[in-house]
Amino acid sequence: AARRIHPKPALPVLSLDDFVPHKVLGAGGQGSVLAVEHKATGKMCALKTISKHTLTPSGVKLVLTEQATMKETAGCPFFPRLLASFETDSEFCIVSVRLLSCLSSYVDGG
User: Do 80 and 46 meet the contact criterion of CB atoms below 8 Å apart?
Assistant: First the structure.
């Protein structure tokens, strides 16, 4: 008997205009992670932005690997859940569930 395979639902199409930034959670040489609020739902998320201008070819591969890993680990409670990804002219953007919000009062700067 043939087994029916159900495709994973498509991620929503978003842009930076869909989010209200609240706080920088971290920053590095290639980008930053911000706590953002999705305007339509009010849901708090983490938005990772990676500058295309400072990204090396091996860095591009890492970004794509990170996105693929987040898709593959969907549903696992130990990994952030990918909500969406998109790009602007200057940045790659990855939107995920903000897992550490419950721990922020225990972390420096939280």
Answer: yes
Rounded distance between C-alpha atoms, residue 31 and residue 25, angstroms? 11
Query: 7 or 59: whose pLDDT is higher?
Result: 59
In DSSP notation, 9-48 reads PPPPP--GGGEEEEEEEEE-SSEEEEEEEETTT--EEEEE
Alpha-carbon distance of 74 to 83, in angstroms, equals: 10
Report whether pLDDT(71) > 50.
yes
Side chain identity, residue 64: L
Q: Is the pLDDT of residue 104 over 90?
A: no
- pTM, two decimals, is 0.69
- Tell me how far CA of residue 101 lies from CA of 17, 23, 35, 75, 95, in angstroms: 23, 12, 9, 18, 15
CB 36 within 8 A of CB 17: no
- Dihedral of alpha carbons 6, 65, 45, 73, sign: positive
Q: How many CB atoms lie within 10 A of CB 31?
A: 21
Cβ–Cβ < 8 Å for 94, 80: no
